[in-house]
Each structure stands twice: as C-alpha cells, then as structure tokens.
Amino acid sequence: MSVKVYVDGQAGTTGLKIIDRLNGRNDIELLKIADEDRHNNDARRAMMEQADFTFLCLPDAAAIEAVELAKDTKTRILDASTAHRTDPAWAYGFPELGKEFREKIVNSARTAVPGCYASGFLSMMHPMVKSGLLPADFPVFAYATSGYSGAGKNAIAVYEGDEKPEEFGSPRQYALSQHHKHLPEMQKFAGLTYAPMFNPIVCDYFSGMVVSVPIQTRMLDKKITLAQVNEMFAAHYADAKLVEVNPLMTDEEQGKFFLASNTLSGQNKLEIFTFGNDDQILLCARLDNLGKGASGAAVQNLNIMMGIDETTGLV
Questions:
Q1: Sheet containing 76-79: which strands, arranged edge to edge?
Q2: CATH, residue 13
Q3: Domain count, the chain
Q4: Least buried of 111, 190, 202, 207, by fewest C-beta within 10 Å?
C-alpha cells in the first residue's frame, strides 16, 4: 500500500531534490500541483487534505502560513524551513542524535528537518556535550565551506551565468554579523549555554560541505585526548546507517591528506573526522548540503514516520 505525499514548494531546490528521491518508489504516490496553482491556497489545501505527508519547502513566513493552511487535515508535516526547528511542539529531525529524537520523530505529526550547517555542527557538538567531553559553557567556534547550491535560486543563477562577477570565483565569507539563521538550532540541540560563533563560507562548486570545530584542549578544565573523542563518536554512532565515523589517522597520514568539501555530493550520508593532536583537536563533518543536509534528511524522516527502513530510497 502506498502513501500519498505532497511537496509544497516543489519548484525550489530542496523540493526538486525530494521529488527526485521519491520518484520511482512503489510505496509513494506523489501528488503534483499544477504550476499555475502553486500559490493558490485553495488548491494547496486540497492537496494537503489528500496527502498523508506534506513537505514544506518554503521560506519561513510561508511555512508558518502553510501549517495554518493544513490545520484540521490528516496530513503529517515535514518542514524544511527554519520556522519550526526550535519549537518544542515539533520533532527535530536528526534521529542519530539519540533515542529521544528518533522516538519523537516516529510519533510526531510535525517534524522539522534540520539545516545543512546545523546537521554537520550538531553531529559533533551534541555528542561532545552529552558525553561530558565538552562543557556546555565552552566558547565554541565553527567554520564551514559549502557549495553554492544552498544559496538559493538567484545566487545559483549568478554562479552558473555567463556574467559571473569575479568575486564569485573566490570563497566568500558571509553572515558576518553572527546572526546566521541556523544558530538557534545549533545552540539548542548541542546543549550549549551560549550561541557558538559561526563562520560560513560559500564557494564556487555546486554542492557538498565541511563543518569544522577547532578545540584548544588547554581551555578545558578536564584534559581530553584525540583518541577519547574518536572512540566516543564511534560508540555514539555505532548503529547509525547514514553517519560514518572515520578512524584516527597518524600524523604522517594527516600530513598527506586533503579534506575536500564536495566528496559526498549527491549522497545522503555524513562523515565525521577527528584530526589534530591531544593539544589541538579539529573536528570535521562532511556531508552534501542537498543530501543529509536537506532533501536526504527529509526523506529519511519521512521513512521513519512511515515506520519503514530509514534508508529506503537513499542508499
């Protein structure tokens, strides 16, 4: 028996990628709204009334309005905007963070799909704080390199256009005011007392990202080792199907290694690396901002809510 799924915002980057991942599945019936009706609330409401599940691939304000539009329908919502990610009434859709996250997703009618940067950051910081290896009040700094596909349709058009400005060929730092839209979920679900400093960098390649967190261990009250951190990650993600913890490298191996940001482009998994040494630890998470960072995570949550193998259609 198939379930009916409607993607509200089917023309956007995330919506299109979700549809790509669902096309061809015999357990999914995709409900497609006519292009001319994409902004017609009556037509959208009619789709939601039919759908068992509705994805919201919309700007924040539009996502809030869409939830109201879906009121009193049977549809279970998966929201890919930032609008509901810190709302306690919603499940936060990162099941690998812990049993409580997964159980809430299973039973929820409302699931917020994590942001791409937040997924990389939380994959490292939530276990670090939960395990006690990093205190909640530690002054955390993170930086990240990302492909331009996460910058929106207008930016994608500039990057791929014939008249691309020279500066678009260079890595560009942004959100310099420290008000990036992912910061609230990064702080909340990491369990941090204070918001982390975050330095995102958009680069001239299509998709994929690496989120990095450096830790000077001399700033900790309790000394930790690189091996301890790696072992903790390996234990935390021992049963994870879409998160892979890489083994420690020797100094010689690290010296020859380059960590590319686009290696997982088109894939739905996330990789964690522990670099450096016992004095200076560098934590890195690599993922596709359109995969485990967006549409792949959305479909993983749909599978969990459906009660089937979470990797269906993803591996």
A1: 28-31, 3-8, 53-56, 76-79, 110-112, 91-92
A2: 3.40.50.720
A3: 2
A4: 202
Q: Are residues 253 and 298 both part of a single domain? A: no
Q: What angle do CA 232, 236, 241 make, to 5 degrees?
A: 135
Mean pLDDT by 10 residues, the chain (315 residues): 93 93 95 94 97 97 97 97 97 98 97 98 98 98 96 91 94 96 97 98 97 97 96 98 98 97 97 98 98 97 98 94
Residue 82 resides in a domain:
yes
What does the pLDDT read at residue 153?
85
Q: Judge whether 57 counts as a catalytic residue.
A: no
Q: Which residues contact 130 (CB under 8 A, 6 or more apart)?
A: 98, 191
Cβ 133 vs Cβ 228: under 8 Å: yes
- Paired tokens of 315: 């591996």
Cβ partners under 8 Å of residue 206, min gap 6: 147, 148, 149, 262, 265
CATH number of the domain that residue 185 is part of:
3.30.360.10
Looking only at the bridges linking them, the beta strands covering 209-216 and 280-287 are: antiparallel
DSSP, residue by residue, 244-294? EEPPPPPHHHHHH----SSTTTT---EEEEEEE-SSEEEEEEEE-TTIIII
What is the strand order of the sheet 141-147 is part of? 172-173, 197-203, 141-147, 209-216, 280-287, 270-276, 243-245
Other residues' Cβ atoms within 10 Å of the Cβ of residue 206: 18
Residue 196 lies in a domain: yes
- Three-state DSSP class for 49? helix
Q: Choosing from 57, 116, 203, 284, which is the catalytic residue?
A: 116
Q: What is the pLDDT of residue 152?
A: 83
Domain of residue 101 covers 3-114+294-306
Instruction: Give residue 218's pLDDT.
Output: 96
